[in-house]
Amino acid sequence: MRQRLFVVLLAVAAVAAAAAWVVSTEPAWYERLRYPLRYEQIVRGHAQNYRLDPALLAAVIYAESKFDADAESAAGAIGLMQLLPDTARGIAVRTGGRRFVVADLYDPELNVRYGAWYLRNLLDRYDDEERTALAAYHAGQGNVDEWRRAGRDIVFPETRAYVDKVLRVKRVYAEAYDLTG
Description:
Helix content: 55-70%
Strand content: under 5%
Oligomer: single chain
Structural class: mainly alpha
Distance between the termini: 55 Å
Number of strands: 0
């Protein structure tokens, strides 16, 4: 009985290892099909302008909107990087914008520019700690600051899942599209 259990466990482990190997070695063409990259010039340009890893910027866009420029959330976030109008208005003021209107957030170039500025601002604020900056992008700076003061990691499960997804997808974009920072 014990030997039979060992054989079954060994077989399960072998299958799991094979599955992990297959998942981690998907060809680039398959990853590009599964994780499309739209607006590549905009992503590369604003990544360079704001000293961001283009794979990180693409991964945030994918996680936020799957590259749907018309995306809207129940919370009122708009566009590729799912910016709230008040956040975007503040970014516009800080970057010299004078005539911001909410409809501007549907413009991929402007949305990614504002989102890239905001992401760079968060990375600067949190000493280039990507996990912390991404948590703040998702859950808000106030929540992240409160967690840090309490010596805690990311408290919200959905924010932890978001950060993990962005970092996983970042690796996919870096490899499948040769996006490197």
